[in-house]
Amino acid sequence: MDDAVRDPVPQAATAGEYVASLREVRRRSGLTYRELARRASAAGHWLPPSTLATMLGRTALPRERTVVALLAACGTPAVEVDRWLETRRDLEARLGEQGRGESDAARTPAGASTTVAANIRPSVGTAPPRPEAPWPARRWLRLALLAVFGVLTVGAAGALRPVAPPTVDGSPTVGCPEVLRQGMYGPCVLRLQEHLVADGLTVPVDGWFGPDTTSRVMVFQAFGALPVSGTADERLFDELAGDRKVPASWSEDRIGKHLRRTFPEDPAGAVRVARCLSGLDPYRVEVGEDGARRWGLFQFSDMEVSRFGVDRQTALDAAWSIGTAREIWSRTGGFGHWNCAA
């Protein structure tokens, strides 16, 4: 069955029908939310399982970038992704014209002016809202949110005081904290992500300092012989401003071929385990709840990396990771060393 039949572009009349079509695409993929999140990340998109579950559980029109991330993770061809977005934009324009006044009235308490309602601020420390807006206003709304909630996040951090920030491209980012860390949001994080991408690391440039950004910061620190903290301080920004580039990682195709050659007894099993562990991303770094880190294709722990007598940079090398996995496989006779629950 070809892609066009498997994942048809919806002819949706409502946002609910559009979301229902996305649910069907996810169902047909046969992938779990965790697997989809890994695939999306490998393709350069940000799609946490919680975000995906929320999107598919609602009847509101989802954000464009979330739609793109899901379709990319499901392997939808680019030409069909464009058609999905066209359908979404048509719906957004139509629903925006029909329901804008009604939705504004519903959100404003009786007797309250729209000016008062518009000035209600979210509580500090909560995730910033992501309101849907008619297409012409969407770009400006996003820029405003980046600026406003960047300030709110800095305030919520408490101990992080605004300082004269590090310069990355010769012009300072006004109002940035001394240290950027996971959970922050705003233009300072956006700047960090842009320069990580420029230095050879694929990461969603969305202004959110999430696990993907933490992972890429750790990779840059490992290759730069910096303390691997997962946070961005002045020293990291100085390195980002230099000429250092992270070596290009292996493509998924190259990794698959190398795995099959290295594990001729069970080539499919080798690919399956590596995909489950890291999404076939040799630069994947996972941080557990206890702070322990796992590195590379086969997600070797800090303790294992130390026992093997290598540094973090080596642990991110695809050839080393596959070769070490083969040594373990030869001793144990299988992939029981790894426990990856999809």
Fold-level CATH name of the largest domain: Muramoyl-pentapeptide Carboxypeptidase, domain 1
Strand order of the largest sheet: 1-2-3
Report the major sheet. 3 strands, antiparallel
State which percent range the strand residues make up.
under 5%
* CATH architectural type of the largest domain: Orthogonal Bundle
How many strands appear in the DSSP assignment? 3
Number of helices: 16
CATH H-level name of the largest domain... which superfamily? PGBD-like superfamily/PGBD
Please state the CA-atom Rg, rounded to the nearest Å: 22 Å
Oligomeric state, counting identical vs distinct chains: single chain
How would you describe the shape?
globular
Helix content: 40-55%
Total number of distinct structural domains: 3
User: N-to-C SSE series?
Assistant: HHHHHHHHHHHHHEEEHHH
Helical/strand content category: mainly alpha
Mean pLDDT, to the nearest integer, reads: 79
Span between termini: 26 Å
CATH class of the largest domain: Mainly Alpha
Low-confidence stretches: 1-5, 103-137, 153-173
Any overview of this molecule?
With 342 residues, the protein is mainly alpha-helical. It has 3 domains: 3-102; 136-240, Muramoyl-pentapeptide Carboxypeptidase, domain 1 (Orthogonal Bundle), CATH 1.10.101.10; 252-332, Lysozyme, CATH 1.10.530. The protein contains 16 helices and 3 strands. The protein has helices spanning 3-6, 15-29, 33-42, 49-57, 64-73, 78-107, 114-118, 135-157, 187-198, 211-223, 234-240, 252-262, 267-278, 302-307, 312-315, 318-332; strands at 285-287, 293-295, 300-301. It has a 3-stranded antiparallel β-sheet with strand order 1-2-3. A hairpin with a 5-residue loop joins β1 (285-287) and β2 (293-295). α5 (64-73) runs antiparallel to α6. The longest helix has 30 residues, at 78-107. It is globular. 32% of the residues are buried. It comes from Micromonospora arida.
